[in-house]
């Protein structure tokens, strides 16, 4: 049975049972990964999953059931189970759940693309990656090189009891390269274009080709070798730091994106990674950052990893301001959390599969560029008397209120009298969220701005993974450095 037929059976059955509200997501998921190391293919994996998830609201409580059985009888059984679970939940629920007034949508969406990443021959993918590792391995001192590519295709048919009817196909693709240098009891790595399997986009195989992994491989290898001979970044209690745009994207993710998820703020999401220091009444009052900082959630950003046509509650993709001129003005919300505070969903409900209930998730949470379109990394460094440039995320840690953080990066450079100087390895920086963002005093312009990807954002229990995007320029801040 096709997923459109699964959705039709599910919505017919669950509507017959008379809930306050019901929606169904029939999903067909496919993915493929190729990994190479040096001159050999290490792994090729292909996965597929198809099923239907049914969510119902009965007596002010949710019920959810899902099935991978493509038989109509199994789908009807799942619909009845969802209703039974909602009724059972209603007997212990304290506050009845309400949904906002988002209108039911009808429409289709397909990610703009040239080459479906799941249709690209594996051999051609492997050859592309092997060419990149060969180029990096030609650099003296490189110990080994890894390269990878991933592609995803998700087709969703969404139906709701209030008349929504959506068909959507979302394609994601990307890849990356990591060169390692090992010696003297130390291991250093340099990633291109960024860490955690690289850079990803909504689109097709053309997004991988645009990265030009083979063309950047030798430079990446040379940087790894240079790091092996570099000293550790010295400690300073507070100093000026310049973050390249890829690292600033991670900073946005952890210290702005997650704290502004409304389910965390309301205390509904606590178990996996804590809540948030933000309160509902902080909206339009809290100075979150300096006046040059404005943040927007935008699921329509062309080519970004968090771009789609509709979220998993059928809300049409759009733009929502979160921070305007440094002041908190909005939250990331779904229909339930938005209704709880008198707002309307901004379309950030997503589930990682047909078998998971949608959660509030980031889409593309991006920092607006500075007003000087020509300003970039070089110009910000030139305007900095003393400090450090930190590049490419290596790890992160943040407390369960999203207040105190520490990030490790792959490389750092001394800045002295407006020029880049000595290279340092194992750099870290630490700070407090509001102090850090309020210290921002320089941002790159439009020409410096780039959308980066986070393909492994975890949330919820059972854990769900989401793929999200963050646009960012280069930025300058104050923080402690050198803490290991």
TrEMBL record:
Tell me the ranges covered by the Metalloprotease TldD/E N-terminal domain, including all copies: 22-86
Which Pfam families does this entry report, sorted A to Z? PmbA_TldD_1st, PmbA_TldD_2nd, PmbA_TldD_3rd
Q: What positions does the domain Metalloprotease TldD/E C-terminal occupy?
A: 238-473
Instruction: Cite the Metalloprotease TldD/E central domain residue spans from the record.
Output: 116-227
- Matching InterPro entries: Metalloprtase-TldD/E_C, Metalloprtase-TldD/E_cen_dom, Metalloprtase-TldD/E_N, Peptidase_U62_metallo, TldD/PmbA_N, TldD/PmbA_sf
Q: Which UniProt keywords apply?
A: Hydrolase, Metalloprotease, Protease
Keyword field contains Protease: yes
Spell out the Gene3D superfamilies in the cross-references: PmbA/TldD superfamily
Q: Which residues form a coiled coil?
A: none
Member of which family? Belongs to the peptidase U62 family.
- What this protein is called in its record is TldD/PmbA family protein
| Native source species | Polymorphospora lycopeni
